[in-house]
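Aim 2 progress update. The chain analyzed this quarter is reproduced below.
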Amino acid sequence: SELASGDIVYHLASGRVKHAVDQFISREQFQDAVVVAAACAAGRFVEGSFGVGSDGGGGRGAGGAEQKGGDFDDGELYGQEMLIKINACMAVQWMQESQPILAACCMVSVGCVAEAVTLLVRGNELEMAFGLACCYERDTLAVSLLPALATRAHFAGERRLALSIMQTAVDGGGPSNGSGGGGGGNGLSLSVGGGGNRLPPLEGD
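Predicted structure tokens:
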């Protein structure tokens, strides 16, 4: 509505960035919200007027002392925080539309790799989640996905591949092998699913 648009213009003119971004998010105008947050991160707004407090964050307190914007006195830091919030909202929307890859892209764009991997796993995109973890050298994340990948390979009839994947996990594998065998200190076991059932032996082994 025109009234809501007028409120956003007022918030931006007075440096109340948080209020403007919140209004954009509530109206699902994510692109506009990103533009404002990016401008804040680039230092386009006056430091200390980011609108964190109930009265907008800026202004003067008792005794006329100038008050800065809550815990985010650094515009770049606060702008990045807002970008993460906006992209998280976008990711939720994409997940609701059954688009885990696009949701993960939203989180990767603001450096939240672990969250992106989690969204891919929730969306049953295990292979892509593993690839993303490897690409960003998140070895712990990658290794934690190996049992699920082995389970998928097993039920797809690729039993040799499943055993190979689990052997990699037991050896402390992943993108960069850890030291020592027999589990490699990662706590993984040769089980499928939550029931502790071991992969059946291959015929002829």
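The radius of gyration is 24 Å. The first helix runs from residue 2 to 13. These observations will guide the mutagenesis experiments scheduled for the next reporting period.
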